[in-house]
Amino acid sequence: MIVIDEIKKLIEKVPVEYGDVRVEKTTSNGISYRRNTLENLSYTTNFGGCIRLYDGGNWVNGNFSGLNNFKKVLQWLTVNLRYMKNKDYELENFQKNYYTEEVTPKQRDLLKIRTIMHNETEKMKLKDYIKSFDFVFSDQNIEKYFISNNGSYIKQQFNSLGMSIKITGISNTSYVKTIRGVDEDKVIKDITQEITKGMQNITKKKLKLIEPRKNITVLLDPKIAGVLMHETIGHTLEADSLLMNKKLYNSILANPICYTANYSTPKKSNYFSLISI
């Protein structure tokens, strides 16, 4: 009951201006609590914790290995509710009004990256980057995530072997390619090459190779600052050998790359959404 009571307190503290919130029961060990109905949030205590947000079109999952730091969970929840409702917020105002603890420089950088990602100018760069072909990037293991005005989806599966890109056309034809390695520049180059090949394969159009640029930023699910989530909740990729190897983990922290993971139990696997600008 202590866990349930604490989670209820957290939900009550979520700013009303960011929509309705619901905590719904998802497992036998979960909790059920409803404040309103527009935003949907679920918190399950089985194998740790899971917070799920819904903005009317997209689900965002936050998974935690511990249940003892509720202030940090509230930070995570508030970050994402605000981010989903107001893509152009000022970081300083956000920190002043909604953070209960000082934001570290690394967290600040990640939040800045997330803010930039939904700037209209950056959206146009992204749209230009993926062009205007009728195709979607998808992965059957993950929900599709809308990332551009022309209806294109980019889904990225990230595992110990590297990255697997699946491009699915409107006629259900698909092109799958696995990219191995952790070097950022090489990965970006490989991704752009494979995207181009995939579009050629599906659309039957001859496309000029999209040249990788130094200022392309690879973000793994911009809705959640994954490094922030893992640092504040205490679940680190480094501690889980099934999740990622240490070299890749350090590479992600050094770049930096914004990421989030969707875990399954008991056999753990992790999936990441990828977009480039």
From TrEMBL:
This protein's record includes keyword Hydrolase: yes
Pfam families reported for this sequence: PmbA_TldD_1st (PF01523)
Record InterPro entries: Metalloprtase-TldD/E_N (IPR002510), Peptidase_U62_metallo (IPR051463), TldD/PmbA_N (IPR035068), TldD/PmbA_sf (IPR036059)
Transmembrane segments: none
The entry's keywords: Hydrolase, Metalloprotease, Protease
This protein's GO CC annotations: cytosol
Gene Ontology biological process terms from the UniProt entry: proteolysis
Residues of the Metalloprotease TldD/E N-terminal domain: 20-70
Coiled coil segments of this chain: none
Molecular function terms from GO: metallopeptidase activity
Organism superkingdom: Bacteria
Family designation: Belongs to the peptidase U62 family.
Record protein name field: Putative modulator of DNA gyrase
The species this protein was found in: Paramaledivibacter caminithermalis (strain DSM 15212 / CIP 107654 / DViRD3)
